[in-house]
Amino acid sequence: MAIPKVLGIETEYGVAGGPQNDPIAASGLLVSSYAHVGGRFINWDFRDEAPGSDLRGTTLLTSIAPLVETHLANAVLANGSRFYVDHAHPEYSSPEVRTPRQAVLYDLAGEEILRRAMLGANRETYSGDAVVVYKNNSDGKGNSYGCHENYLVRRDIEFTDIVKCLVPHFVTRQVMVGSGKVGWETDSASSRRPVFQVSQRAEFFEEVVGLETTLKRPIINTRDEPHGDHERFRRLHVIVGDANSSQVATFLKLGTTGLLLALLEDVGIATLPPLPVDPVRAIHTFAMDTSLTSVEEFTDGKMYSALDIQEWLWRSVNSYLSTHSGDAVAPRSEIDEIMSYWRSVLDGLRSDVSSMSSLVEWVAKKNLISSYAQRHALAWDDVRLKAIDLQFHDLRPEKNLAARMGFTEMFNQGEIERAVNEPPEQTRAYFRGRCVSQYGDSVVSANWDSLVFGLKNGELHRVPMMDPMRGTAELTRELLDRCNSAEELITALGM
Amino acid sequence: MAEQEQKRKNIAGEGQGSETTSAATTAGNSEKLKNDMDALLDEIDTVLEENADEFVRSYVQKGGE
Q1: Of A263, A310, A372, B37, which shows the fewest CB atoms inside 10 Å?
Q2: In this complex, is the C-beta atom of B37 within 8 Å of any C-beta atom belonging to chain A?
Q3: Where are the alpha helices (DSSP H) in A379-445?
């Protein structure tokens, strides 16, 4: 039986400006300026982190684990998220949420937090250029940074089945959820030299399955850090996606992938499409063809386009939902919304690609850039078109182009404001967020699966949160309402 | 290849008959977007970074993840 698809999105933002134009300093300034108004500096407890652990069961000695940079700014926010400096980028790791809709909402909350952090940082910047933040995935010069999705998966599911389930999807979903890019920047694109690509990230992928995230990036990442009970859970760490400005794109990215994982856990892979013969070539082919007509050979010996495979996946999930509720992913009304958007986007892309500009981000960007090029009689390699591509993702409201595209919106400003300040209610993020709000001075360290409280008598108490589905509002609201201090909380917990 | 063409048609054909209710407001939006494109391009001319060459050249990020 499928377990709840607890979800999260980690976004590394592009950053420019700041003291000496140093991205680490700029990122630190963003986090520290925001922590003063909306969060707490809390030590991150790295006890739980093992980025070198491999889901396939071995740890590859050649893999490079991220450096543990404990001196860099780290804040845990009242909405249960983590906002910190990851290498040379500000990263917002959303709180764990229970449904794709909530994933969209807490991703939007992250954008709002970055905008406020930018305002704060630029009040404190006394020299150099203003700090500017971009929600994109590459600089156009061969450097990429990620937007990672996380899905809770049953530990007893065979990893090879996860690969078979998701490779066809990850190679083709970009036609619905890619955020688009002018030009190309890696060797993988040098033979085709595309003027515009469906995905920001696809050309950076060089392997099918692997542990790396910065070199030889794999379509399926095997990092094994469940941030929970190792016996019961995997956390599938997905690195292949683009950061999205279209809310429906984020919704579809999480919704379709979550549904396929629920299908895998409930009924297995029998109804799913075959794999491409060469998945790496296929992800590049589909990224570099905006007509969406290119086909690739699959292991059944036949040729399919990205849309053919998405049609197949939609039909498999639709059929699964005739016998299963899908409640591992979301309530039925939300499932219907995912399936309906998925259907509309596939039909729209097949009949008239350019009609999809209010839902599909790469289509909106391409329409905009082609219209601009036409108006000013510019060639596709004109630098002004690349400037529009970058500025599309500039988070400053006065500069941001994505916000001017008329994308369908799923949440209003009031809902986003609330998600900036309050945690989601249906996961352990609720307990984390409320504890940071109420007992912040007593929280000495935190990570995804525990909080450590320092009491006035000098005692330290670790509160473990090994199940992402516990620590919810339903289970802890009354307790948290009742306890006015960390001391009272620890006593009430019987610790 | 002929078989593939046929297959694609079948898949697409099956899709046509299915529910497209709540999300099908997109045609109206995109029509509006087309009408608004001229206004949008005017606006972009005013907000676009002034020195596109310098802006694009100096946007250099370190790899992440």
Answers
A1: B37
A2: yes
A3: 383-391, 413-421, 429-439
